[in-house]
């Protein structure tokens, strides 16, 4: 057993992973085992699961496809792993994250320890107030569904030298998905909903961060949502063209030409915020769409005929507020 796999499967790391998943109230996948039942299940089956992992015979279960409506129409596909697989993914993530964190850009804020969306907004405001007021908003088309797995695992393998860990991560990428009771292969993409996916997405898009830094561009990125700011319309159009070309050529990702745009700060919605100029200075405000969505949620949660207990109603209100 490699040293890295030893760390992942250690009692301390697995306990930490279990506690983290339990605290996040992880939903159950296709096997029907809930977070409440998984402790008993693991006590009875962990030795067998661990042995299979070490022999490379463990097969992660397919994820359960769940469609989440987007505020602007369309749906986002989430893949919900079984609770056992969520815990194993979390255990892998806990060990790999400290290896990759030092490599990540200071301009990247999504899915990273100690980093929040508000910090991305603060940095973006600094650029706007320094005069970089032309926005290059590049939309990656279905990023999580379209990530090329071979390219991703090549990047993972540059830092992770334990072949057993590489094998296990690859199995999670290729575990497949259950859609309306039917199994589908996953030879491309990384399922949004698993605990490994956020780290893997940052490993992939760190290549974009490095390219933008090498070009001396001002940018912020939160997950697959990247904003570049420049000082003129001509520069913005040039950056849109050259960066789009680089993404499609080097990362084998598709840029959504319809949604990608060069725009001004007043027309930008980023991480729930809009931007206004007050007394000669750019400031961020909750975007009107975010406010309206918040009001709709509050109205729904305070609706009198909603037949749930007051305790549950208060819990849901606290989550929204």
From TrEMBL:
InterPro entries documented for this protein? DNA/RNA_pol_sf, Group_II_RT_mat, GrpII_Intron_Splice-Mob/Def, Rev_trsase/Diguanyl_cyclase, RT_dom
Entry keyword set: Nucleotidyltransferase, RNA-directed DNA polymerase, Transferase
| Residue stretches making up the Reverse transcriptase domain | 49-275
Q: Where are the transmembrane segments?
A: none
List the molecular function annotations (GO) for this entry: RNA-directed DNA polymerase activity
* Coiled-coil segments: none
One family name in Pfam for this protein: RVT_1
UniProt-recorded name of the protein: Reverse transcriptase (RNA-dependent DNA polymerase)
């Amino acid at each position: 057993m490699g040293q890295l796999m030893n760390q992942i499967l250690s009692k301390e790391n697995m306990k930490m992973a279990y506690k983290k998943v339990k605290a996040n109230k992880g939903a159950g996948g296709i096997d029907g085992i809930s977070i409440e039942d998984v402790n008993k299940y693991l006590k009875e089956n962990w030795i067998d699961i661990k042995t299979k992992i070490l022999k490379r015979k463990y097969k992660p279960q397919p994820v359960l496809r769940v469609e989440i409506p987007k505020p602007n129409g369309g749906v986002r596909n989430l893949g919900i792993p079984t609770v056992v697989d969520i815990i194993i993914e979390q255990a892998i993530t806990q060990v790999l994250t400290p290896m990759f964190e030092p490599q990540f850009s200071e301009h990247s804020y999504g899915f990273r320890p100690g980093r929040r969306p508000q910090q991305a907004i603060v940095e973006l405001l600094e650029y706007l107030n320094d005069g970089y007021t032309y926005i290059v908003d590049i939309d990656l088309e279905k990023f999580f569904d379209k990530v090329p797995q071979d390219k991703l695992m090549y990047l993972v393998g540059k830092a992770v030298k334990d072949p057993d860990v590489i094998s296990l991560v690859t199995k999670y990428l290729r575990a497949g998905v259950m859609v309306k009771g039917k199994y589908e292969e996953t030879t491309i993409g990384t399922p949004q909903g698993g605990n490994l996916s956020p780290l893997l997405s940052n490993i992939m898009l760190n290549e974009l961060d490095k390219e933008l830094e090498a070009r001396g561009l001002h940018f912020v990125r939160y997950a697959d949502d990247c904003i570049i700011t420049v000082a003129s319309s001509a520069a913005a159009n040039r950056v849109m063209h050259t960066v789009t070309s680089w993404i499609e050529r080097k990362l084998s990702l598709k840029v959504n030409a319809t949604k990608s745009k060069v725009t001004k700060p007043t027309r930008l919605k980023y991480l729930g915020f809009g931007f206004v100029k007050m007394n000669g200075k750019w400031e961020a405000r909750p975007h009107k769409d975010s406010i309206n969505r918040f009001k709709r949620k509050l109205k729904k949660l305070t609706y009198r005929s909603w037949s749930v207990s007051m305790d549950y109603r208060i819990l849901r209100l606290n989550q929204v507020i």
